[in-house]
Amino acid sequence: MRKLLTALSTIVIALFCNALQAEIYKDFVPFITLKQVKLNYPNAKFEDLKPAWANEDEVMITMSGEGLNGEIVLKFSKDDKRRAKRLAENEAKSLNDNSKVLLWYIDFDKNYLALPLEDRLSLDWVRYLPMTPIPYERLLSRYGKPDNCDSNPEDFRPQCVWESKGVLINLSDDKKLVTNIDYWFTVKELFPSPAEEPKPSLKKKSPKTKPKKEPASL
User: Fold this and answer.
1) 33, 37, 65, 137: which could form a disulfide with 44 (CB 3.0–4.6 Å)?
2) pTM over 0.90
3) Looking at per-residue confidence, does 66 or 207 come out higher?
């Protein structure tokens, strides 16, 4: 089952890479796991962060190393609580119901919960902190006019956001340089075409997840 899930993850990543637009940063696509990130960047340095707002299901790490122009912050989360609850409910139901659908979900959730932590942590959003600030004009030429520009509620730095692209930037006080860029996954990236949560079948499919929220400030 673990090999099947790994293979499916690879297929999902490949499909998203082909379908997504340029707002996805590097190869940090929806549903990619912490394990896959580490496989993609075997020589990178990873450090755990402990933001005050993170709960037990959330993990944030920084990634740096030779060949990376700056630092990358990655925020992951796992779906253990929801799956454990569904598993318990379905196991209770199975005492009186042995339908294939119910048994499929029991098997699917059991195998997920048995995976190592790095296989269960799924990427929510990315923050790129370049070594050298990027001219704001470059992002305008890439993404066009922002949907909204305001100020960061914590330090009042100027910031702009492209909601439809899942991109937020913090600017220098003169609004000429970009100090960091946040990327989060919009519904378009998460679900290129309308789809329901996977139905039981002989071929396991990747589970549907809720759209990720915009990155929180550190």
Assistant:
1) 65
2) no
3) 66
